[in-house]
Automatic annotation (TrEMBL):
InterPro entries: AspA/AstE_fam (IPR050178), Aspartoacylase (IPR016708), AstE_AspA_cat (IPR055438), Aste_AspA_hybrid_dom (IPR007036). Its EC number is 3.5.1.114. It comes from Pundamilia nyererei. This is N-acyl-aromatic-L-amino acid amidohydrolase. It is an enzyme of class 3 (hydrolase). It catalyses: an N-acetyl-L-cysteine-S-conjugate + H2O = an S-substituted L-cysteine + acetate; an N-acyl-aromatic L-alpha-amino acid + H2O = an aromatic L-alpha-amino acid + a carboxylate. Residues 7-207 form the Succinylglutamate desuccinylase/Aspartoacylase catalytic domain. Binds 1 zinc ion per subunit. It is found in: Apical cell membrane; Cytoplasm. The lineage of its organism: Eukaryota, Metazoa, Chordata, Craniata, Vertebrata. It is a peripheral membrane protein.
C-alpha cells in the first residue's frame, strides 16, 4: 500500500490547440456549471478539490486554429519557460509563461496537484491518456478507473519517455498530469459522440479524485502501457521535400493494431506499396494525424508492456506533515 499526498487542486484545460473543439466546448460548459458543482461538493462529507478550469490558448480559439505563432503544446520545457524573454516573443511563448505562473511553477511545491489537458486527434485512437511517466500511480489509477467505468470506449495509456526538464506539454506543469486525447474528430469540428466521451471521462476523473481525497483505498493491478519508440515520416521527394505517398489503405484507421515487418505502410501516388522495414512488430498510433504533416510525422510506433501498479490511498495528516518536514530538511541541506 502506497500512501500519496492529497490532490486539493486539479486543473482541467481545453483549447491548448484552438481548433480541437471538444475540449474548448467542454471547458466552456464546465465554467458555466462550476458554481453548481462546487456547491454540490461542499454538501458532501469530504474535503472538495478545487477545480481550475482553463481555456489555454484564447487567440488560437478565436481564429479556430491550432496555434497563432507556434505550437503552445511544445512550449513548456524548462529551457523555454526559463530562458531569455522579450515582449516581441511569439504569442504562445508569452502564454506558456502565463500558464506556468497560473498552474506551476513547473517542478515546484506550489504547482497544481493534477493537470488534465484535453485534446482531439484526427486519428482513430479512441480515448488515450498521454503521460511522461510509467510509474505515476495517480495517473495510472485514474486511467484504470476510466477503463472500468467506460468499458465500451477503446482506451490506451501512452507513455512518452521524456525527462521532466524536457517534457514539453501543458500537462507537465502539474505535480501529476496527462493529456486526454480522443478521436477521431476533424479539427475545427465537434462531434457529439467524441464530446460526450470526453465529458464522461473528465467526470469520472474528477469523481476518482474526490474518492481518493476522501480516503478510499484503490487496489493494485495491471495496466498495459504503450511506450513511444519512434516516429515515421512520409516518403518525400529528395529535392522538393513534398510527400510522395499516403498511408496505405490497409493501415489507415488501424491505430494500436500490431504492425509487422513487411506489412504495407504507404501507397505512393504512382500506386506502389511501401512496406514497413522495422525489425520488430510495433503498435502504430497517430496514424495520418492532420496536425503532424507540418512536423514530418506520418505515424508513431510504440512498444506495449504490462505494468504492475500498487494499491494506493491518501496520506494521513501525520504522514503528510512528516513528508513536508523531510522536504524542508532537504532544502536546508
Amino acid at each position: 500500500m502506497v500512501p500519496l499526498p492529497r490532490l486539493p487542486r486539479v486543473a482541467v484545460c481545453g483549447g491548448t490547440h484552438g481548433n480541437e473543439l471538444s475540449g474548448v466546448y467542454l471547458v466552456r460548459e464546465l465554467l458555466k456549471l462550476q458554481r453548481e458543482v462546487m456547491k454540490k461538493e461542499q454538501e458532501e462529507d469530504s474535503k472538495p478539490a478545487l477545480v481550475l478550469l482553463v481555456l489555454s490558448n484564447p487567440r488560437a480559439m478565436q481564429h479556430c486554429r491550432r496555434y497563432v505563432d507556434t505550437d503552445l503544446n511544445r512550449c513548456f520545457t524548462h529551457a523555454t519557460l526559463n530562458g531569455p524573454f522579450s515582449d516581441m516573443a511569439p504569442y504562445e511563448i508569452i502564454r506558456s509563461r502565463e500558464l506556468n505562473a497560473l498552474l506551476g511553477p513547473k517542478g515546484s511545491p506550489e504547482a497544481v496537484d493534477l493537470v488534465c489537458d484535453l485534446h482531439n486527434t484526427t486519428a482513430n485512437m479512441g480515448l488515450c491518456f498521454i503521460g511522461y511517466s510509467d510509474c505515476d500511480w495517480i495517473c495510472l489509477h485514474i486511467f484504470r478507473h476510466l477503463q472500468r467505468e467506460m468499458p465500451d470506449t477503446p482506451m490506451r495509456f501512452l507513455h512518452f519517455d521524456v525527462s521532466n526538464k524536457e517534457s514539453y506539454s501543458l500537462d507537465s506543469l502539474g505535480k501529476h498530469g496527462f493529456a486526454m486525447e480522443i478521436g477521431p474528430q476533424p479539427h475545427g469540428v465537434v462531434r457529439s459522440n467524441i464530446y460526450t466521451a470526453m465529458k464522461v471521462g473528465v467526470q469520472h476523473m474528477l469523481d476518482w479524485v474526490r474518492l481518493f481525497n476522501s480516503g478510499n483505498v484503490f487496489e493494485g493491478g495491471f495496466v498495459d502501457v504503450f511506450t513511444m519508440v519512434k516516429h515515421i515520416d512520409y516518403p518525400r521527394d529528395s529535392e522538393t521535400r513534398n510527400i510522395t505517398a499516403a498511408i496505405h489503405p490497409c493501415l489507415q484507421d488501424r491505430d494500436f493494431c500490431l504492425l509487422h515487418p513487411e506489412d504495407p505502410l504507404f501507397q505512393t501516388f504512382s500506386g506502389e506499396t511501401v512496406r514497413y522495414k522495422g525489425t520488430e512488430p510495433l503498435y502504430p498510433f497517430f496514424i495520418n494525424e492532420c496536425a503532424y504533416y507540418e512536423k514530418g510525422i506520418a505515424l508513431s510506433l510504440a512498444r506495449k508492456r504490462r505494468i504492475t501498479i500498487p494499491a494506493i490511498r491518501v496520506q494521513t495528516e501525520q504522514e503528510q506533515q512528516a513528508n513536508e518536514q523531510g522536504f524542508a530538511s532537504e532544502e536546508e541541506e
